[in-house]
Design a protein that fits this description.
By secondary structure, the protein is mainly α. The protein has helices at 25-34, 39-54, 58-85, 92-96, 101-109, 118-121, 123-128, 132-162, 168-178, 186-210, 214-228, 233-245, 251-280. The longest helix has 31 residues, at 132-162.
């Protein structure tokens, strides 16, 4: 009598699988967990973030933007603390630049509204569906968040200048660090703003696939901005307001020589370059 062949044993956890043998369900789950999300998936995550943010009430956007402006001021404070405790050596700027990441870590992990993040998140939904309604929603979002960010940084600068919250040494260090804004021409400020806008947009793009490494992604991208001397409209406005309030920079000069070129640069870097390129690489797959 013919005997039926014995049932094949299914590979269990930890058992090697021969070439050509289908992987087990558990192994398939491991592959899914370890795999980096496809580019269209990252695009969709960032796009949905933008849709959600544009749908928020104006009051929520305003106070979230003010909070971001206050939080970002801790970047300059952290740099000043490092500056006062390190010797005057050629490598000191490389270390003090690490402090620049502090404010961005607070803002991003707390999900506060930062204008330069919105140069990609809220732009992707508009690019995908270019309508008058979406353009108006984009303009509303940008206007509220930018003004709120600047209000927050101005409040922080006033607090640092007119109250005894800081020691004289820390205040002097913050002013010394802010002095780099006075050393660049209009066109140079704009192109340094382009680089910073591109890096912030890249940071936003990387966060959905970074899982538990968000802290490291934020730190790396923002450290590059500080170490390279690039210009960020919100973080830089803390420095600009400090210079104005302490008599080192005129108000009109702050607007024309810092605010306008850096704002244009950040928008170009985050929207015209990174957001459009990001959409172009997935537009045939969505």
């Amino acid at each position: 009598m013919n005997k039926s062949p014995p049932p094949q044993e299914k590979p269990g956890p930890g058992r090697r699988v021969a070439a050509g043998t289908p992987i087990t369900e558990r192994e398939a789950e491991d592959v899914e967990e370890r795999a980096t999300p496809r580019t269209p998936v990252i695009y969709e995550v960032v796009r949905r973030m933008g849709e959600e943010e544009m749908a928020r009430p104006a009051v929520s956007l305003w106070w979230s933007g003010v909070a971001a402006g206050l939080s970002i001021s801790f970047s300059l404070l952290a740099q000043a603390i490092l500056q006062t405790h390190l010797p005057d050596a050629p490598w000191r700027p490389l270390v003090t630049s690490l402090g620049y990441s502090v404010g961005f870590i607070m803002v991003v992990l707390a999900r506060q509204q930062l204008f330069t993040e919105n140069t990609i998140t809220v732009v992707l939904p508009v690019i995908a569906e270019l309508t008058i309604k979406n353009l108006l929603r984009l303009g509303r979002m940008w206007a509220i968040v930018l003004v709120a960010n600047i209000a927050g940084t101005l409040a922080a600068a006033v607090l640092c200048t007119y109250t005894p919250v800081l020691t004289p040494e820390l205040r002097d260090a913050m002013l010394a660090l802010s002095g780099h804004l006075l050393n660049h021409g209009w066109l140079e400020m704009e192109f340094r703003g382009v680089a910073a806008g591109f890096l912030i947009a890249a940071m936003v793009w990387l966060l959905p696939s970074s899982e538990g490494a968000q802290f490291h992604v934020i730190t790396l991208m923002t450290y590059l901005i500080a170490a390279a001397g690039f210009m960020h409209i919100v973080a830089g406005s803390v420095e600009a307001f400090l210079l104005v309030l302490n008599g080192d920079l005129a108000w009109w000069a702050m607007v024309t020589d810092f605010f306008v070129p850096v704002l244009i640069g950040n928008v170009v870097g985050g929207t015209v370059l990174f957001a459009l390129i990001s959409y172009a690489q997935v537009m045939q797959e969505i």
